[in-house]
Amino acid sequence: MALGTSSREDSASIKLNTLNLIPKYVRRGYKKRVKDLALQRARLLYLNAVSEVREGEIDRGRDHVKLALRLLEKANAKKPPYLRRWVCKNCYAPLIPGLTVTVRVKGDRKYVIIAKKCLLCGWVSRVRCVRRR
Fold first, then answer.
1. Is the CA virtual torsion 6, 7, 10, 12 positive or negative?
2. Burial, 74: exposed, middle or buried (Cβ in 10 Å; 0-12, 13-18, 19+)?
3. pLDDT values of the chain reduced to their tens digit, one per residue, 133 residues
4. Bridge-partner residues for 103, per DSSP?
5. CA–CA gap between residue 56 and residue 90 (Å, rounded)
């Protein structure tokens, strides 16, 4: 092999596959553990974001929410209900009734519409729900 050039055989011999060093019984269930850890961390980040917003640090709360969403995206995990329902989809602020969001219940027929309006950016989220009898 000349200087400055390389071949595939050389690079293949240099590479060290770390997964082959880990026994198979340890690798089993690895993705589930990663998703579980990501969900736990996302929950803690969301709780920290809510406490930051209550203290008045809205930008820091947004950063926590963005980090939680990015973590779940990287772990390929589904977003839990509290991150789907109680985060503004426009400005990523955690929605706290009376502080960052107003909640209205509209309709008196078969369906009820729950409208949440973010007080920071004005984004309105509407959810249609079946009326209880």
1. positive
2. exposed
3. 555 555 555 555 545 555 566 566 666 778 888 899 999 999 999 999 999 999 999 999 999 999 999 999 999 999 999 999 999 999 999 999 999 999 999 887 788 999 999 999 999 999 998 877 6
4. 116
5. 19
